[in-house]
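Late entry, evening session. Most of the bench is empty. Finally got around to the prediction I had been postponing all week. Sequence below, unchanged from the version circulated by S.P.
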Amino acid sequence: MARPRTAAGRARRVHERLALEYPGTAVELCELNHTNPFELLAATILSAQCTDARVNMVTPTLFARYPDAEALAHAEPLEVEEIIRSTGFYKNKTKSLIGMANALLDRFGGEVPTAMSDWVTVPGVGRKTANVVRSVAQGLPGLPVDTHVLRLAHRLELTEETDPVKVELELNPMVPAAERGQFSLRVILHGRRVCSARKPACGTCTLADFCPSAGLFA
């Protein structure tokens, strides 16, 4: 099969290959345990500088104690800090969680918003977090750009941009809107399992036959 000559062509090939490697819906591909948009929002805030596995260890207790925005908005910060301490940066994350809950309660009737313009006004929430919840829990277009997506987008020469928002906006037209979340989640999984930051496993990578960076890390 001929190597794609353009970034858009490579993105399409990546999308096809990784869909075979990591099948499933966005909900199935997401490794943060949740049952609704509010839980996924809180879990995503906790996932900053922390593994999904660690977040999944603390969220059952957090959600049992604070099941919705109203409960979390009135939480005692020290109690939240104690629950989430093991995720790191727990003081800042507690402020973000309680601030997020108060914003939902004050401005959106306790519900998680859907419009990006509303999302980015919520404390602790940027486009990446918004796109995670939009694409996974709300069935809306969203392409989260984290460190894995950023790294693989550069190695695959899908973009030269370094700002996550600019990367998202450049990748968006390359992927069907309804599949952007799945694309991102698959790239994230591939970045974690195969195309790591320090020692990518190019020899076993399903993208190696057309990846411009294949073999450069031997």
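Two things to note before I forget:
The radius of gyration is 18 Å.
The chain has two domains: 7-29+142-204, 37-136.
Will write this up properly tomorrow.
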